[in-house]
Amino acid sequence: MATNELSMRLWHERELLEMLLFKLEVQQLLLASGNGRWMHLATREIEQVLDRLRTTGIARVVDASAVAEEWGASESATLRELVEHAPNAAWRDVFADHLRVLTQLVAEIGQLRDTNVQQLNTVMRATQETLTGLGTDSGEYTTGGARARDDAARIVDTEM
């Protein structure tokens, strides 16, 4: 039955969205700690989950189309429209719950993504300012007013 397949597909999509939320939280913790060493791994894992979500999304559209046909809805019916066309209260409740949880997860992911982008922009701006400052004098002077040193040595974390 296409209805069961769609419900299982939606469960799988919920799990992937929860995994994406987790990966974004890991990325946020890495950003907050200032440790960029593992950022490339966190970003790669986010991209992998997004790829899996794309594949699942395509399969969900196919499954939803089959359910829509069974229930007499438009072939391109959304999940919200399927809830309205459900033949009984049990399926209406199941799909309404999927819709509610998916909507909530997408909202959380959007907020976390925006926060991470903002933190990344802050880190990039600070890095650019540091790099720009590497070519300027240090401004270090002795108590007599003479330059303390002629070099412009700086400590830069090259692991970031």
**Proportion of residues in helical segments:** over 70%
Order of helices and strands: HHHH
- The percentage of residues in β strands lies in under 5%
End-to-end CA span: 52 Å
What does the main sheet amount to? none
Q: Can you give the mean pLDDT?
A: 88
CATH architecture: Up-down Bundle
Query: Regarding quaternary structure, how should these chains be classified?
Result: single chain
Number of DSSP-assigned strands: 0
Which CATH top level class fits?
Answer: Mainly Alpha
CATH topology: Methane Monooxygenase Hydroxylase, Chain G, domain 1
Structure commentary:
It is a single chain. The protein has a single domain (2-132), classed as Methane Monooxygenase Hydroxylase, Chain G, domain 1. 9% of the residues are buried. Helix content is 73%, strand content 0%. The protein contains four helices and no strands. It is mostly helical. It has helices at 2-33, 39-71, 79-85, 89-133. Helix 1 runs antiparallel to helix 2 and helix 3 runs antiparallel to helix 4.
Topology:
Elements: H1 2-33, H2 39-71, H3 79-85, H4 89-133
Helix pairs in contact: 1-2, 1-4, 3-4
